[in-house]
Design goal:
Distance between the termini: 26 Å
Order of helices and strands: HEHEHEEHHEHEHH
Shape: globular
Strand order of the largest sheet: 2-1-3-6-4-5
Helix content: 40-55%
Structural class: alpha/beta
CATH architecture: 3-Layer(aba) Sandwich
Number of strands: 6
CATH class: Alpha Beta
Number of domains: 1
Length: 228
Amino acid sequence: MHMLALVALLCAAPRVVLDPGHGGSNTGAAGVVEGLYEKRLTLALAREVAALLRASGVDVVLTRTDDRYVSLRERVRIANAAGAEVFVSLHANASPTKAQRGTETYILTPEALTIDAPALRGADGPPRPGVDAETSALLDDLERSAAATQALRLAERVQSHLAAVRPESRGVKQSSMDVLMGPTIPAVLVEVGFIDHPVEGIELLRRDVRARIARALADAILEGLEKP
């Protein structure tokens, strides 16, 4: 490799994919305030986190930048094509009783990682020019497995930082969420609070609350980029 190309590669800014959940016709959960939907909160929050990360020298890719529908499969493809270090999907929770509150962060279950992800996301891996399909699929599986430990560490950092600014942490959990199955990089899904809770749902509307959440998420991501 030419020396200038090597220097450019070593100096390249780290890249993060932020995924504002839902969008367009897929409104997500309805908030305690009429007209507030999860899709709007996640986009506003993603923009705030992106601004903080960019101010720290991180290159940020958003899976959507406006109120439009993006399929889960397309979100995965964006993440894998971006050449990013991590993938963070942002969501807001809701409950049948409207009585639950708190933040939680999800990673993929071991079963989903080893069984469901290869079966459902075989064609959604990153581009590998010159590599045949069978070898590419094998590399995808290896990268997903290698990313699992880093995803857990990132999830723990996210919850630690959120716990410092929000009243209740529900911890790190495992799930077979579709959007987590495909990325070949460390991937987490963050529920920043319950949008339908009579108190927390109102708090999530406040600019100062969102700013603290955005700062916590950005700090957790930055810490993870420094110490994978």
